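Example record

Each entry pairs one chain with its bound ligand, NDP.
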Amino acid sequence: MEQKIINGAELAKKVKDEVKQEIETNNLNVCLAVIIVGDNPASRVYVNSKKKDCQEVGIESLEYALPENTTQEELLNLVDRLNNDPNVNGILVQLPLPKHIDENMVIEKISPLKDVDAFHAINVGKIMIGDYDFLPCTPAGCMELIKSTGVEISGKNAVVVGRSNIVGKPMAMLLLHENATVTICHSKTKNLPEICKTADILVAAVGIPNFINKDMVKEGAIVIDVGMNRLPDKKLCGDVDFNDVLDKVSKITPVPGGVGLMTRAILMKNTLTASKIQKN
Ligand code: NDP
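Structure tokens for the complex follow.
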């Protein structure tokens, strides 16, 4: 059973080690600015992890913790200031933002060259045409996890459950770039179990604990679980019923210990990439 579980921790360490080594070897100054607005506990955990990762790989991290009642204008002004600060290479605004702030407007304000989340429309468009500088962290992490299994993606049937702008849609696009035949499913999809069962590669990004069960999985499938759901007992749980599907799959990512760690590692890689693009 052990060999079925894709080791996200090991792969994330490898990515971070490469970033660290490149920074050390070339004596680079790389800096990531993280903005957090309000006191969402999950956002606080994510921001703390990002700071820890920066420290590990030798990236300077600046945290801007703004109060819940920060105005849209104040936030946009801060982003503008960071856009114009030559010492800042990457800007990340932790989502979600408080309801009175227009998330899209904030994302669009970030300079595409410093948009290490790759959420800006320019970066999204570049991903669409396959000519990009950054990939969004979670889908890029999923691709690395899939590739680590050694599977030939070309020609395989891939099913992505979820069509969010930050996970589902870019995930489908990256699989398409690797010549998979891709189906995107969502809440209005009919016959979801049947479609999922056609997947050689199944990516679940739904946000519902244990949503994917063994009746939705093809024998021998590779299953990537993006879900990060908090159960009432505070335990982290994926979108896939891990124990239920384990017998059927050839490979699967655990939660925790899978996609989440890779997402964090790719952010470090993107920040390093941003610093290199800005230098040129
Ligand atoms: P969203 O809520 O933005 O999107 C969820 C998607 O799932 C939507 O497209 C929705 O369809 C679809 N969906 C909901 N219910 C069903 C259903 N019954 N059948 C089929 N599809 C359904 O979530 P995100 O994409 O932002 O995140 C998904 C999960 O991934 C969450 O658990 C989140 O916490 C986790 N996540 C993990 C990350 C990591 O680093 N590991 C990073 C980002 C997210 P519709 O569009 O029709 O509403």
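The chain is about 40% helix and 15% strand.
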